[in-house]
Amino acid sequence: xxxxxxxxxxxxxxxxxxxxxxxxxxVAMLGMAATFWLHQLLVQAGRLDLMTLDPLLFIAxxxxxxxxxxxxxxRPAHPVGWLLLSLAVLLDTTGIAAAxxxxxxxxxxxxxxxxxVVAAYxxxxxxxxxxxxxxxLLLTPTGSLPSxxxxxxxxxxxxxxxxxxxxxxxxxxxxxxxxxxxxxxxDFDAFGGVVLVVDLVAxxxxxxxxxxxxxxxxVRFRRARGTERQQLRWVALAAGLVALGAVVxxxxxxxxxxxxxxxxxxxxxxxxxxxxxxxxxxxYRLYDLDRIISRALAYGxxxxxxxxxxxVVVLGLGQLLGRRSSLAVAAATLVVAAAFHPAxxxxxxxxxxxxxxxxxxxxxxIAAFSVRLRQQVDLDTLSAELLAVVEQTMxxxxxxxxxxxxxxxxxxxxxxxxHQ
Length: 420
What we know:
Oligomer: single chain
Structural class: mainly alpha
Helix content: over 70%
Mean pLDDT: 74
Low-confidence stretches: 1-10, 408-420
Largest sheet: none
Number of helices: 14
Shape: extended
Distance between the termini: 31 Å
Radius of gyration: 30 Å
């Protein structure tokens, strides 16, 4: 039967989408370079008080741009990749405006053109970036809304930042002398009046949209089955890490310690969330989640146990031999090294028994089969048991066994035989 070749035009849209996606990634990288350069100008001018962008946000920007470029180039019809690229570009634009306005209006007045206009667009672009992140959560992982009932809410979420941008564009701009450095992009007191009211409404609706979008993931998970449920499990795990990072940051602030550790933890968790969204959309190694969780828990518990054992040995021998005795440190190191592999096996078995039961049961079945294999000599019985073990551990839709005949049997029968 003749087979017609696939049309070359089908590959061209994907090729062009990949070029556009990586071009936007390059724009995002250039935007981050421009943001860093403008903040360096503020440092050189001695106005550190005017810096409003957290440098650690670069982690989120790079993650959003990279994951978005990969998704948009491989799945151009899926909107999440393009939304992540838009999020990275909007964050860059917000960062540029956060430094451009203060430098051109306060640090070096008149040094940069149209500094007042750029500063006016600082809050609208920040609101648009939050709305973009809300859409990412709303459309993950399928690329469509959870149900048609969500259309009106999606339209409101998209219309609010657009309306805010239009209002700022048509509204009269405040005088440069009225400008003050903003503590955050959501401080818009320089305009006042109707623009200030629109700003407050846009902030409220956008933050509510992010909360509702996060809630839509819960609705999806309750209705999802099969692959989509596995996709959402990845996103749920990463979202839990983001919440944990936020708790760490708040605890650090409440304790009066440096906020750097909490900020780093939060930004790292946000980067993990974006990577998890990319893996969920691409359906990359979805069913390895149980393995990852069990490994993380196992090595976390192992670290705590061995670290505690090391401290106990060092302190105990330190009391006998002296606090600065190198013999105590060496003995503790040897004890930890000797206990590592046995402790890892036992902790891993304990975690697998609780969090990765399928792998634990499969390992037990294979171990029992290996014991029976040593005493089994009947080929038919062995074949049946082997197929049974494969069925229990791998759960394939169909299993068959091919046995290669011996050379003597092959010669006697005049050719090879196949047994299943």
